Amino acid sequence: MKILVAIAFVAILVSLGSALMYMMRGGTPPVEGQTPKKGNMATALAFRVGLSIVLFLCVLLAWKMGWIQPTGIPPGA
Predict the structure, then answer these.
(1) Please, are residues 52 and 12 in contact by the beta-carbon 8 Å criterion?
(2) Which of 59, 41, 37 lies closest to 49 in space, CA to CA?
């Protein structure tokens, strides 16, 4: 489970980095007769949101199935 979470987290960071790259590079005007590419940054960000939701649901499912246990500060401390 730790490996799955780590891979998903890295994929989320890569998607965020690619969106940053698209934003910083900006749009270049299309060449004559070529259709412009739109939405690269939006697609990367939408992919990141989707990955984040899937990761959250996987962690929630793993907790419900008993595969992982919550740790940390005990209640009432």
Answers:
(1) yes
(2) 41
In whole angstroms, give the CA distance from residue 15 to residue 48: 6
Residue-by-residue pLDDT tens, the chain, 77 positions: 778 888 988 998 998 888 888 888 775 555 666 665 667 788 888 888 999 999 999 889 988 998 888 887 777 75
Note every long-range contact of 41-50, with CB atoms under 8 Å and residues 24 or more positions apart, other chains counting. Answer: 44/15, 44/16, 44/18, 44/19, 45/15, 45/16, 45/19, 47/15, 48/12, 48/15, 48/16, 48/19
Model pTM above 0.85: no
**H helices within the chain, ranges in order?**
2-25, 40-65
